[in-house]
């Protein structure tokens, strides 16, 4: 299967490393890479590892459409920067791939949070697959778990600890540091989107909550429609007082189906330290699904890195070659 990579930053380069590592067993061929500032590299017979941008593999494509036409791939891999407000231009990139009868795999939660139902239907009309495992909780099975393993089970709601930066900030406050110390630590770990404001104001969690609800509960919502409050009002004094009571704070995403409605919210919640939602360390993520036939069960990812993001995309690529969806 031939791959066209749109975006080649941390996630794209980690995916390229993984593809190299697994090449014998899974012989994917990268025929094109397109970026915003670095340029374009295309070779329909397959690019070398770490190709230079520009000659002999350039010039820069004038548009994603032009790039996809030149790369002649089977799967477009969308790994561009998240735009939390609209999901663009990733949504347009995905549509351009569908219009060329290409499957799509993405780690970008923007399109799933803003336009999942439309994109799912467009993929079905084009007869191609659309996969996005790494959009929430990196490669830990969330979407593919539901896709493959739980026939007939209805999601009634979910509860998640989905944002790492806010947890790192709370842990810094608990150690007696400042809010800015926590943000600095999160930035040094490379886990923030942008300057970290997006994370601590709750918007990263809102985007993940909307994406999950769109896919698992057919909510047809957007991040702006999630009732969201972040952790920005937390002070060291307040956290110390909570800690004296044996409790801690986590930014929690909650979804619940009530009647015909899906209600979604993100809040900083005070939890017992032994609460399962408080128990995971550092950058770990956790989600619990509340269901009709399977009760409550969940997925945990302990301290994931960009290598797990790459694995989620890789698992999508393998699933697309098997065309199970
Ligand atoms: N990193 C992670 O651990 C992680 C985890 C889960 C999900 N994700 C998601 O994966 C995606 C990529 O993340 P990342 O960390 O790899 O980001 P990144 O390092 O900032 O890389 C983004 C890439 O997208 C390219 N790009 C941006 N706008 C573009 C456009 N309009 N057309 C073509 N290329 C464009 C950039 O080009 P230039 O190189 O020329 O600037 C760059 O190569 C994001 O949506 C992110 O939310 C990442």
What does this entry look like structurally?
The chain is α/β, with parallel strands linked by helices. The protein folds into two domains: 155 residues, NAD(P)-binding Rossmann-like Domain (Rossmann fold, 3-Layer(aba) Sandwich), CATH 3.40.50.720; 147 residues, Dihydrodipicolinate Reductase, domain 2 (2-Layer Sandwich). Helices cover 37% and strands 22% of the residues. It has a six-stranded mixed beta sheet, sandwiched between helices. A six-stranded mixed beta sheet has the order 8-10-9-7-11-12. It starts with a strand and ends with a helix. The structure holds NADP nicotinamide-adenine-dinucleotide phosphate (NAP). The site of NADP nicotinamide-adenine-dinucleotide phosphate has 23 residues, from helix 1 and helix 11.
Low-confidence stretches: none
Strand content: 15-25%
CATH class of the largest domain: Alpha Beta
Sheet with most strands? 6 strands, mixed
- Computed Rg: 20 Å
What is the rounded distance between the termini?
16 Å
- Number of helical segments with 4 or more residues: 11
Structurally, the number of domains stands at 2
Strand runs, count: 12
């Amino acid at each position: 299967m031939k791959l066209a990579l749109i975006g080649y930053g941390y996630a794209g380069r980690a995916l390229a490393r993984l593809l190299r590592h697994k090449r014998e067993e899974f012989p994917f061929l990268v025929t094109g890479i397109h970026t915003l500032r670095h340029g374009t590299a295309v070779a329909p017979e397959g690019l070398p590892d770490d190709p230079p941008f520009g000659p002999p593999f350039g010039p820069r494509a004038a548009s994603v459409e032009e790039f996809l036409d030149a790369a002649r791939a089977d799967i477009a891999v969308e790994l561009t920067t998240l735009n939390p407000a609209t999901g663009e231009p990733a949504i347009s990139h995905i549509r351009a791939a569908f219009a060329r009868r290409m499957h799509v795999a993405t780690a970008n939660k923007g399109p799933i949070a803003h336009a999942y139902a439309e994109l799912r239907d467009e993929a079905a009309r084009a007869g191609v697959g659309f996969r996005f495992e790494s959009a929430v909780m990196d490669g830990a099975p969330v979407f593919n778990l539901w896709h493959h393993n739980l026939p007939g089970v209805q999601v009634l709601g979910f509860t998640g600890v989905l944002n790492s930066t806010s947890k790192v900030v709370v842990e810094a406050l608990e150690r007696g540091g400042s809010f800015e110390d926590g943000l600095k630590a999160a930035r040094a770990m490379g886990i923030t989107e942008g300057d970290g404001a997006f994370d601590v104001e709750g918007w990263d969690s809102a985007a993940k909550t909307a994406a999950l609800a769109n896919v698992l509960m057919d909510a047809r919502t957007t991040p702006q429609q999630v009732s969201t409050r972040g952790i920005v009002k937390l002070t060291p004094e307040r956290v110390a007082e909570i800690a004296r009571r044996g409790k801690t704070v986590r930014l929690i995403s909650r979804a619940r189906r009530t009647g015909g409605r899906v209600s979604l919210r993100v809040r900083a919640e005070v939890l017992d330290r032994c609460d399962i939602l408080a128990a995971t360390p550092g950058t770990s993520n956790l989600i619990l699904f509340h269901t009709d036939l399977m009760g409550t069960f969940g997925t945990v990812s302990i301290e994931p890195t960009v290598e797990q993001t790459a694995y989620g995309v890789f698992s999508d690529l393998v699933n697309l070659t098997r065309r199970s969806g």
